[in-house]
């Protein structure tokens, strides 16, 4: 430092600290040590908030209590959080003075990681894209983009909400008809009102077909649209109606149509997956889908745990209940696959009661199987639960942003 006195005073939030100039040069805090290399008062003001030449005092408008704990780190080498202070606020103070999260004690690092993961907000590429893009594109492209958002983002506008509500009504009506068609009295009722049922089904299929076609035409990437699972389900659920209508028109009630009836009925049942379309309108289903997508590693870990436990306990159960020829013995455990069914319903604490061990060693193994299942299932589920809470908060934040834009649109 080429100016000032030999004693430097740091005024942090009203609390003063005096240091010799040589100490400032090798000070552990990067922002403080930068003062030594400043050649002019202008450069000093780039490091601190204010400077008094007469007293050689440097002013920093920062949290004074946080700096006390940072100075304790300079003296003792241990950095911990300030009690009753937000971890993120203290971390901002650390970054300002030139410290990193690795300087924290291990327990405080974990607290900071948890706090940052809770505050992390996920945005897709479409969310990051600014709204002003609509104003910079041409008229035709702007209209296509608005149509795409209307069909793909139910909360993007009032028209999108109305369209989404109509789509939900058609999904519910279609599901009610699909479920009712499996009732024993449905055939007699259908014979009495064939025209009404056909009209309702045709209207629902027509709506879903029109919606699917429009969404395909206004999509940005046609190949990506066809690769999306929900769109594939839409196509597979719509196709049986047209396939059966075409087959009936060409061949009538022939044997070929009868043989294809099983396949068509199986594909027709895929309409039940239209309920997944409701995820576009409900935060709970969206949170579930986002959680499963992010926690696929934990899900694989859960399946591995269950698979290993099924193999071990299934083999032991078959051996104790049937393989050793003990008296009494159970024929329900004649094979390891049969015993694995008992293992899975025991580990999940369902216990249908269709099969159970009858020997004393088998019952001891059953108790161990139940306890092990509780522990093994609880371990990865904890991570999945925290991820679900995080995803729910993120989607609520996104929904609140859409509601603000809707309020502005309604007022305008």
UniProtKB/TrEMBL annotation:
Q: In which broad location class does this protein mainly occur, judging by the first location in its UniProt entry?
A: membrane
Alphabetically, which GO biological process terms does the record hold? action potential; protein homooligomerization; regulation of potassium ion transport
Domain Potassium channel tetramerisation-type BTB, residue spans: 9-107
**Which Pfam families does this UniProt record tie to the protein?**
BTB_2, Ion_trans
Where does the record say this protein resides? Cell membrane; Cytoplasm
Q: Which UniProt keywords apply?
A: Cell membrane, Cytoplasm, Ion channel, Ion transport, Membrane, Potassium, Potassium channel, Potassium transport, Transmembrane, Transmembrane helix, Transport, Voltage-gated channel
Any idea which GO molecular function terms this record carries? delayed rectifier potassium channel activity; potassium channel regulator activity
Q: How does it sit in the membrane?
A: Multi-pass membrane protein
Q: Does the keyword Membrane apply?
A: yes
> Entry's InterPro entries?
Ion_trans_dom, K_chnl_volt-dep_Kv, K_chnl_volt-dep_Kv5/Kv9, SKP1/BTB/POZ_sf, T1-type_BTB, VG_K_chnl, Volt_channel_dom_sf
The record ties this protein, via PANTHER family, to: POTASSIUM VOLTAGE-GATED CHANNEL SUBFAMILY G MEMBER 3, VOLTAGE-GATED POTASSIUM CHANNEL
> What protein am I looking at?
Voltage-gated potassium channel regulatory subunit KCNG3
Q: Which organism is it from?
A: Paramormyrops kingsleyae
Q: Taxonomic lineage of this organism?
A: Eukaryota, Metazoa, Chordata, Craniata, Vertebrata
């Amino acid at each position: 430092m080429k100016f000032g006195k030999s004693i430097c005073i740091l005024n942090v939030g009203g609390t003063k600290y005096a240091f010799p100039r040589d100490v400032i040069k090798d000070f552990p805090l990067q922002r403080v040590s930068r003062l030594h290399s400043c050649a002019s008062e202008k450069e000093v003001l780039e490091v601190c908030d204010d400077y008094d030449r007469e007293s050689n005092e440097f002013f920093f408008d920062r949290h004074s209590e946080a700096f006390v704990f940072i100075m304790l780190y300079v003296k003792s080498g241990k950095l911990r959080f300030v009690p009753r202070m937000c971890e993120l606020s203290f971390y901002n103070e650390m970054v300002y003075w030139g410290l990193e999260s690795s300087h924290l004690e291990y327990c405080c690092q974990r607290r900071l990681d948890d706090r940052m993961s809770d505050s992390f907000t996920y945005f897709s590429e479409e969310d990051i894209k600014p709204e002003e893009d609509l104003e910079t594109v041409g008229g035709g492209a702007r209209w296509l983009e608005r149509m795409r958002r209307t069909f793909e983002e139910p909360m993007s506008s009032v028209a999108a909400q109305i369209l989404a509500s109509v789509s939900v009504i058609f999904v519910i009506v279609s599901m009610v008809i699909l479920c009712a068609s499996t009732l024993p009295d449905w055939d007699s009722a259908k014979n009495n009102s064939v025209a009404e049922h056909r009209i309702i089904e045709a209207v629902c299929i027509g709506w879903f077909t029109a919606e699917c076609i429009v969404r395909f035409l206004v999509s940005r990437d046609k190949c990506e649209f066809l690769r999306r699972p929900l769109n594939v389900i839409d196509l597979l659920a719509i196709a049986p109606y047209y396939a059966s209508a075409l087959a009936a028109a060409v061949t009538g009630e022939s044997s070929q149509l009868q043989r294809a009836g099983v396949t068509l009925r199986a594909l027709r049942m895929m309409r039940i997956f239209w309920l997944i379309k409701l995820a576009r309108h409900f935060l709970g289903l969206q949170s579930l889908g986002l959680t499963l997508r992010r926690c696929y590693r934990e899900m694989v870990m859960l399946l591995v745990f269950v698979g290993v436990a099924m193999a071990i306990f299934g083999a032991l159960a078959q051996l104790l209940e049937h393989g050793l020829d003990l008296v009494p013995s159970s024929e329900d455990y004649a094979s390891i696959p049969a015993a694995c069914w008992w293992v899975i319903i025991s580990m999940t604490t369902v216990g249908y009661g269709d099969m159970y061990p009858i020997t004393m060693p088998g019952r001891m193994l059953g108790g161990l199987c139940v306890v092990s299942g509780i522990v093994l299932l609880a371990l990865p589920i904890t991570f999945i639960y925290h991820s679900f809470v995080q995803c729910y908060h993120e989607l609520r934040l996104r929904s609140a942003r859409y509601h603000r834009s809707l309020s502005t649109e309604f007022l305008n």
